[in-house]
Amino acid sequence: MTSVWPLLEPWLAQVQKPARYIGCEDGAKAKAPDPALVSWLFTYPDTYEIGLPNQGLQILYEIINERADARADRAYAPWTDLEAIMRLQAIPLFSVEHHTPAAEFDVIAFNLSAELTYTNLINCIDLAGLPIYSRDRSADDPLIMVGGHCMFNPEPVADFVDVAVLGDGEEVVSELTELIAHQRQSGETKQQLLVSIAGLQGCYVPSLYQPQYSNDGAYIGLLPTLDGLPGTVEKRTVADLAQWPYPKEQLIPLTEVVHDRLNVEVFRGCTRGCRFCQAGMITRPVRERPAEQVRTMVQSGLKRSGYDEVALTSLSTADFSSIENTVGAIMDDADSMGCGPVSVSLPSLRVDAFGVGIAAQLQRARRSGLTFAPEAGTWRMRQIINKLIREEDLYEAVEAAFSQGWQRVKLYFLIGLPSETDEDTLAIADLAKACVKLGRAHTKRASVTVSIGGFVPKPFTPFQWFGQNTAAELQRKVNLLKDATRRANGVNIKWHDPKATVVEGINSRGDRRISAVIEDVWRNGGTFQEWSEHFDMQRWTDAMDRAGLTVEDVVYRHRHQDEALPWDHISAGLHKDFLWTDWQDALAQVGLPDCRWTPCYDCGACTGYGIEHVVASATPPAGGSQGTGQDLATGNSVPVQLLGPKA
Predict the structure, then answer these.
(1) What is the DSSP-derived secondary structure letter of residue 236?
(2) pTM of the prediction?
(3) Which fold has domain 5-234?
(4) Coil, strand or helix: which one is 579?
């Protein structure tokens, strides 16, 4: 293997943040290049400071480097300044550990956790000196693999990749390594290897499946091209997180990155059943990491990293069993090790699972802002989206925070949800004002930041049949909130660009024909589309026109029950009829409490694992809304309707 360092190093003084490209981080694995080893290049298709903290890539990177028969390096998308130099000086995409050209690896594996990175995906393939389409690459070229939440509809990037891995990757990366090693020894062709990979649960090989269209151009399904291939590709699920205490040595960056802190995953999955939330649906069932293992991982991480902030990560961290005791133990351990004061943050806090007890534990260290996600402004809307929290829950959580010394609270909301009215939208402003009023009773500096996101109906959610709001309609709703809070002292409004929300819809809801759109946007300079200074919706609408597609058909149109969806050949473990019934429940404004403490709804996620939501406690988390709701006519508190198991 070769190194591009002699070519690269003279230019680093001319680019922003040269530390992005040099490697050498504490925790990096510098396993020497060896042609006898199966080599992986784990790549994040965005800048170093966005990609380095990604826990999924760090976990797989460690697992591969622990194997005697394999090695792994990392790569990130070069910023535009270095890319210009690389193209001018013929420097290919490279790994940061050894500056090895990407094309010299056996596998280039991308994490795709945001749809707007798709143009960066093909830009990285092109920078590696490889054809962007899988059909044009040779038997000697690396396999291009992708994973991440976006791959629960892999069709928009299907023509570019060799393999899409669905679900948890801890087990399957080793199985893939063994298949590649076997191919080397046996002399199998690349095509034979791909057929073998297609036999692994969780691995989808797009070239072995052919999309079908009707005479009028409507997508009608996908068919295997060979006998014996699975008609449906099932996701992979790691049943026991305790067996995978990764990352054991989190990477410590050399320059500022997002989420620059010690991150420890406390559980995976979520059964709250929020109907808008793809992550909560596709990561079921819930699997908790043992509390003692969490404590050990935090201890070792603090000791070696020097961080003074710990994030306990999950989709709803306050639901972790004995969360108060765990936070308290972490604080005590930090003090006894001489690491204190240590700040513990709990991302994705549920307002109905946050109280004075947790607040009192968190306030032992410095107080940063707290973030809650009510998601909708009215109880009617929260029943529709199944975010069963009451105004009282929000106010109690905010009161607990401000009473314990916090001065800033952030609230996340979605606009563009099914059946949303202007009254529902404006209620967001009312909630924010009420929260500021509560805070001002404790501190004159109390403030609330309202973060507004446009809703994208994602695959494998009950809302996957819903037609997305237009960019103009989303912007109108943003303007309503801006006007409603213009004179509200202490309320700050931030929002996601509605045009970017529409493009997310194109890339998450389209079929394989979107590959041509992505290529078109890329060829017209559309990289780094997650960055506002580079995003341009006109590129996307022009590309859609040239491909003979419309935003109306792909994004804005409602789907019907019997329509073939571009992701129907993928299984997230959820029964499609469960999702449809839940969609009908949403339209009927029926809420379903968390199934960990209520009768099973037979969604299908636990089938085949011999487990039923592995948690450490059968006691519901804090919060008064687990089994009650509000009668829409009378306003009285009533039991939330429970639907029994679905046949």
Answers:
(1) B
(2) 0.93
(3) Rossmann fold (3.40.50)
(4) helix
